[in-house]
């Protein structure tokens, strides 16, 4: 099979990469796999050095600290917690709670458990545990029947394609959404549930591979700053190189860095990068049993080495070029079936006429040997590994063309 | 070092167990370690069979299904979600949402996101993601500044020791707590936030190794049934054999099984067992990218084999006997320092005069080569691996005695 979905975008450098097999076969590493430590309590010797060699070497601009976690959900959940702690510390001017705050926190009541909120976007996806789920707004089936925090959801720009043709309309749509963000911040402040942070994906992936302009994100960052809300970029799906840069939000060219960036999937472990001021004042405020997994971190460090040595970000740009051009051609050839081809690097997508046709097309492609995944209501998302080369892209396009011809 | 804490109770059969090393060195297993699948979407061939050999072989009485997860937090979060889905389906009499429910669910509003609650206990610990954290009531530092669901917390019995001496008082205390549970269920129903489920640990671990009688739990189970709330037993710390039975709640002798049992730590992966009626009606309602980890599951299956082959549950009973008797002796020898020695199997604890003395004692023991962990305000919890034998217990008691003599 030619895998263009890679376990929901979570296989960074393909299956059975020799560099990773070597890690596994090195007898020195055996005990790291067999004995998983409680990383927050008893980190293995040299773990800080390993983070410097690995995660810290790809820290987004302006963020010098990293907190490891085990998956995308605990990464976002704990990033939200760090935001709430930061926000309350800022509000009260120090980090020493009153006796009332301490007492009420244990019984789920204010002021110890304050009414704070995280603002997110319609179509956004940030995970499915109860905190994350309150910022996820993709499909009803993911949220139905589950209690939610009363947190605000702003509209995400609905851009018209091709982008070049609708520049003015799209700029207006983005302006409308940004105004709505500010309105919601004011409204939730008045409700007594101030927006402590804003969370957004650089490309809404699960929601349908929805894009906004780099300018939109820069302005959103400025709005967060203006209202004293933290700005959290969720790179769980976009991070790790598939957009042609290691972090998708690097494309924006922010002058003022994001406050936090969460990651998982292609990075094999989870976690978040953060500014110094988001370090809680006391140990154990952000904590759990495992706090990640040194075995996965070992793989990650090797993956980062392979990305550098094999120049995979350049590879992604070249392959992405072939893929996106191929998708443009296919949508010109099958205008009754396809529209809105879009992408950054190999992080590409295309819309299919309707949900039913989309699902049939994915099945047809699978039966011809290509694994694809859907997103949103009628999109297909392409998520090859970073080692996907031009000839793989060509092969994929040919088979996809055959599947389309069959429809 | 002699480890009597085992990475917060998460190392089941000691470090570098030969059976686990063998799994690692088997070339057939390499690719399971290197290629982590999206288990909910593309389970590896034979995965169901592997579950039958492994997890299902230790399913608690009455529960035939299991859902794998990756840690204790996502286990509880998803168990809560399955409870909410079950409860709403029961309320509306079917699982087809109205258009209004579908539409409101995506924007965090009722009726799609209903006001339901989970009842938990003071001193209970169920994790630190935002849903779990709303059922955790141990230390302020774990909850301070983080928004919480308005969910009820019932008192957990505060028993007097030695138990045999205070039977009448303790029975009264448990009665008081159970009455309070019923009052809270009625109160939260009136508030419009019905109690969809009750969650409890068989022994409150992080909260201080707090016990209640088996009778208390049986009555609590009946109360849950009476009010139509699901009964969830959190065995994240107690599960896996250290109480002398594989599941601590087996000690209760429930006629009517629990509805759900969550696990992680010593089981190396996470997840929950559940009754048929807690299976959501549609796929993807309980879902995330990884949904556990087949590599960890492979270790678990081997651990279960070792537990059976080496008769480790019997070993735990024997060692636990030595440990608890030793602790009784030490508390008789150092009555000014120690009290309330208690335990089931090797899952033992003792109280120290005060928090400061407790912390000093743990440090002293560590400097003499024994790793211990605290819990609650002034307790030490003992959490050896299942391979901890009588002579290890004796060694630990001797060193602990030396540390005490030094105080
Ligand atoms: S919540 Fe991330 S691994 Fe469990």
From TrEMBL, chains A, B:
Residues 163-191 form a coiled coil. Its cofactor is pyridoxal 5'-phosphate. Its EC number is 2.6.1.19, 2.6.1.22. GO terms for cellular component: mitochondrial matrix. Pfam families: Aminotran_3. It is found in: Mitochondrion matrix. InterPro entries: 4NH2But_aminotransferase_euk (IPR004631), Aminotrans_3 (IPR005814), PyrdxlP-dep_Trfase (IPR015424), PyrdxlP-dep_Trfase_major (IPR015421), PyrdxlP-dep_Trfase_small (IPR015422). This is 4-aminobutyrate aminotransferase, mitochondrial.
């Amino acid at each position: 099979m030619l895998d263009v979905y890679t376990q929901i975008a979570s296989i960074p450098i393909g299956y059975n990469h020799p560099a990773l097999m070597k890690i596994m076969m090195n007898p020195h590493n055996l005990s790291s796999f067999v004995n998983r430590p409680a990383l927050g309590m008893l980190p293995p010797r040299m773990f800080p050095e390993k983070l410097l060699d690995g995660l810290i070497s790809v820290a987004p601009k302006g963020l010098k600290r990293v907190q490891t976690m085990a998956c995308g959900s605990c990464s976002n959940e704990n990033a939200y917690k760090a935001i709430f702690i930061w926000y309350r510390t800022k509000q009260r001017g120090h980090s020493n709670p009153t006796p009332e705050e301490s007492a009420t926190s244990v019984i789920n009541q204010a002021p110890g458990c304050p009414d704070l909120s995280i603002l997110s976007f319609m179509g956004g996806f940030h995970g499915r545990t109860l905190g994350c789920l309150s910022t996820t707004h993709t499909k009803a089936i993911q949220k139905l029947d589950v209690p939610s925090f009363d947190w605000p959801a702003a509209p995400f720009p609905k851009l018209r394609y091709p982008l070049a043709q609708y520049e003015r309309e799209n700029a207006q749509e983005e302006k409308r959404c940004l105004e709505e963000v500010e309105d919601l911040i004011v409204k939730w402040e008045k409700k007594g549930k101030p927006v402590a942070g804003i969370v957004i994906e650089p490309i809404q992936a699960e929601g349908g591979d929805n894009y906004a302009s780099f300018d939109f994100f820069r302005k959103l960052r400025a709005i967060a700053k203006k209202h004293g809300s933290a700005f959290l970029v969720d790179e769980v799906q976009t991070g790790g190189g598939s957009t042609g840069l290691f972090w998708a939000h690097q494309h924006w060219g922010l002058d003022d860095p994001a406050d936090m960036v969460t990651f998982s999937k292609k990075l094999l472990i989870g976690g978040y990068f953060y500014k110094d001021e988001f370090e809680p004042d006391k140990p154990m405020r952000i904590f759990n049993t495992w706090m990640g997994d040194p075995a996965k971190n070992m793989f990650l460090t090797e993956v980062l080495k392979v990305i550098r040595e094999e120049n995979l970000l350049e590879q992604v740009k070249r392959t992405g070029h072939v893929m996106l051009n191929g998708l443009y051609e296919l949508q010109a050839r099958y205008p009754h079936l396809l529209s809105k081809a879009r992408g950054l690097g190999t992080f590409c997508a295309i819309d299919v006429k309707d949900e039913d046709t989309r699902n049939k097309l994915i099945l047809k492609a699978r039966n011809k040997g290509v694994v694809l995944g859907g997103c949103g209501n009628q999109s297909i998302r392409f998520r090859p590994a970073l080692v996907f080369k031009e000839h793989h892209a060509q092969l994929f396009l040919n088979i996809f063309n055959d599947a389309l011809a069959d429809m």
